[in-house]
Fold:
Amino acid sequence: MRPSGRAIDAMRPISIELSPTRYAEGSCIIRCGETHVLCTATVDERVPSFMKNTGLGWVTAEYGMLPRATHTRMRREAKNGQSGRTQEIQRLIGRSLRAGIDRNALGERQITVDCDVLQADGGTRCASITGGWVALRMAVNNLMKAGLVKTDPIIDNVAAISCGIYAGQTVLDLDYAEDSEAGTDGNFIMTGSGKMIELQASAEGATFSRDQFGQLMDLAEKGVAELVAAQNAAVA
Structure:
């Protein structure tokens, strides 16, 4: 039995609230159970220096957690410098979202996706990627509406889900209670058409077999399909 009482292939409840902020070109709050993340997308008509005069656009991301997003207060990283974990997560978000973009069609501009964790209960990087895509979709829609982009640069959805081995069973969408005790923990980032972007799986308490990894992949495909359906319903 999972701590939440969910079936092994059951997701936490998913909701996506559009435009919670006034000024960002695209924004949403994604709620995956008790994990809540504010995602905003900002369009900049400039690109980083290494992209100048290439004709290509760029998508990047920043990630952070509010001090009381977790059980005990964390010190603000802006004051103390970003941790290695934070830097790794924001690089993951950026390269995941770029996999769903035609950078030629975007043109020489940058979109920055900020993901701020309001409340954490496991799977914050996965929620950030999934909600980040929604904010990105909204920002691109505004560019197209303004006539600044002629061809839709978004080529596919991008979503992410965690899977793991908890109490000897492969389970979908780990919450904190499961994540903290899982023998194996993995993050699966995929496109809406089912192609792989990045897979991260590690044995934290026990090794896992190829057959178990296949089971995790099956669960991940089911979870990503549900997340993509929620994304599309939100932006329809």
Notes: Helices lie at 77-80, 84-98, 103-106, 124-145, 176-179, 210-235. The two ends are 36 Å apart (CA to CA). Strands lie at 14-18, 26-32, 35-44, 58-65, 110-119, 158-166, 169-172, 184-191, 196-203.
